[in-house]
Amino acid sequence: MSPTPVRLHNSLSRSLQTLEPITPGRVTIYTCGSTVYRYAHIGNLRTYLFGDLLRRTLAYLGYEVTYVKNVTDVGHMRDDQTDGGEDRMIVAALEEGKTPLEIAEFYTRAWLEDEVLINIVEPDVLPKATDHIGEMLALIETLVDKGLAYEVDGTVYFDVSSFPAYGRLSGQRVNQTRAGTRVEVETDKRHPADFALWKRAEPGRLMHWPSQWGEGFPGWHIECSAMSMKYLGDRFDIHTGGIDLKFPHHEDEIAQSEGATGHRVVNIWLHGEFLTLDDEKMAKSAGNIIRVSELPEKGFQPLDFRYLALTAHYRSKLDFTEPAMQAAASGLRRLRRAVAAGAETGVDLTAEPMAGYGNRFRDAIADDLGIPAALASAHAVAGADDLTPDQKRALLLDFDRVLGLSLDSPAEGTGIPLPAGAAELLERRAAARAAMDWIEADRLRDELAGLGVRVRDTPEGQVATRRS
């Protein structure tokens, strides 16, 4: 059976286009992963969730998928516009009194553990930048040999004037790029828009490697060009990342990769929008960072956040608020209750009426990852009058191959265990509410609060969470 056709919004063409894999039936994907000098926050994880949904969707629709996501453990500058400032890995190492290797290992492990909490599937390949210095040097040498890059006192720059297509992805013009920044542009560049492929190591620098141009270290952008082409070849299907990477990172990747190969390397570029916190961008500088592992302290499960992410299209901004998370938690409980009510024995998903629901779900995800519409299809199944509990369970577990919500988990699970005695008080309060004894219900709410348990009354019943 042939895979289902898929339409995706290509950032390069600024239009929807049908996915036509280079190898029929097989899709190759590269995602820019974490810069591992600090904890990943839920804003970062929304981007990785988008890549996970893409991968799950394509597999569900019948494609064989090879998925590569890198680890940036060297070379990411403080100021992406100017190539200036200290490497973020080294800054973290000096601040925490550790070696750069220790910093990278610690935060890589933390990032991957957080991804597990929200059911992000491991990539097929997880390459580290520091393991691919040789590939980067070879790629830089090719660019120098082709006259696309030049060396100045041990630092190698890409010459953007030699690549006429520069700016095609982001819409930036060369004479406007990197202008107006508050950090002084290096004076050894031929043009302010030129970017570093290899940087000369200053005396005492912690991370450096030998090269044809002396001791140094890679620029940020060359890493992804080298690693993506090593594992996926010099032509692959899809490159994903956050909208903030479109310029300069992905623009520079295109210049490097296409400059070295002489042809288009990536067929489709996909970019995910920001997650905001009360309409503000989530950032360390703003002091509004939340880790997914911290959500239980706020009364939510990590998968409540995954559900929230599914409610917005990947190309739309999503605002993280407590009411939105409460609604997400309620929606997840509803789907899990529908799954728990069935036994799923011998259900034929190709028979009607199941096939109709399945087709609506399939059509939604095939149309530029229409996950919100797919989630609505799942709720239609949960509330359908023409489906038995077993049929609902079978359909929802099938949809969960894409949604990744662990719908066969208990509906009323909480992020952290409640203290001793709380369960009995909750049962008594539920009985009081059923008897419309509001005074007793309020008294029990106060007693639970004394144990550090917050109770919210929802249309589905009371929800108890432990206060941090």
For this entry, give a set of tags.
globular, four-stranded parallel β-sheet, 3 domains, alpha/beta, Rossmann fold, 468 residues, four-stranded antiparallel β-sheet, 13 helices, Isoleucyl-tRNA Synthetase, Domain 1
What do you see in this structure?
The protein is of the alpha/beta class and 468 residues long. It folds into 3 domains: 266 residues, HUPs (Rossmann fold, 3-Layer(aba) Sandwich); 119 residues, Isoleucyl-tRNA Synthetase, Domain 1, CATH 1.10.730.10; 45 residues, no CATH class. The protein is 39% helix and 15% strand. It is built from 13 helices and 15 strands. The protein has a 4-stranded parallel beta sheet. Strands 5-6-7-8 form a 4-stranded antiparallel beta sheet. Strands 12-11-13 form a 3-stranded mixed beta sheet. Helix 1 links the parallel strand 3 and strand 4. The protein is globular and about 80 Å long. About 3% of the residues have low confidence.
Topology readout:
Layout: E1 7-10, E2 15-18, E3 26-31, H1 42-60, E4 64-69, H2 88-96, H3 100-117, H4 133-145, E5 149-152, E6 155-158, E7 195-200, E8 216-218, H5 220-232, E9 236-242, H6 246-261, E10 266-272, E11 275-277, E12 280-281, H7 302-310, E13 318-320, H8 322-340, H9 354-366, H10 371-382, H11 389-403, H12 422-434, H13 438-450, E14 453-458, E15 461-466
Helix pairs in contact: 2-3, 4-5, 4-6, 5-6, 7-8, 8-11, 9-10, 9-11, 10-11, 12-13
Q: Please, what is the oligomeric state?
A: single chain
Low-confidence stretches: 77-83, 179-184
- What is the CATH level 1 assignment of the largest domain? Alpha Beta
Number of domains: 3
In the CATH hierarchy, what is the superfamily of the largest domain? HUPs
Give the ordered list of helices and strands.
EEEHEHHHEEEEHEHEEEHEHHHHHHEE
How many H/I helical runs?
13
CATH topology of the largest domain: Rossmann fold
**Portion in beta strands:** 15-25%
> Which class do the helix and strand fractions yield?
alpha/beta
